[in-house]
Design goal:
About 40% of the residues lie in helices and about 20% in strands. With about 100 residues, the protein is an alpha+beta fold. It has one domain. Strands 1-3-2 form a 3-stranded antiparallel sheet.
Length: about 100
């Protein structure tokens, strides 16, 4: 049959702790553009970054933030772990790729 339909962009809120981490690492151009074009929304003491991107970019950003859950030999910061888990729940709600 034909090629699968392209995925449409979706908007998700990324916790600021996740966005702050991702802004410090090497990203692909599509990932960097998604972060750079995100809209900052203030939330109490912190913020969220409202990002519009195709689901595959959200999944890639989530994968890149995996180290916030802790890696052997590094300390885990509970607030960062919780922030990544919140973003993971939003990305997971998009469903898996076909």
């Amino acid at each position: 049959m034909g090629a699968p339909a392209p995925e449409l962009p979706v908007t998700l809120d990324m916790p600021g702790k996740v966005a702050d981490f991702l802004l410090t690492i090497e990203l692909e151009p599509a990932e960097r553009a998604a972060l750079d074009q995100g809209v900052t929304v203030r939330r109490g003491q912190g913020y969220t970054l409202r990002i519009t991107a195709v689901p595959v970019v959200h999944r890639r950003l989530l994968d890149l933030a995996q180290s916030l859950d802790g890696t052997p030999g590094t300390a885990v910061i509970p607030a960062q772990r919780k922030a990544r888990r919140e973003y993971a729940n939003r990305v997971t709600a998009l469903g898996s790729p076909a």
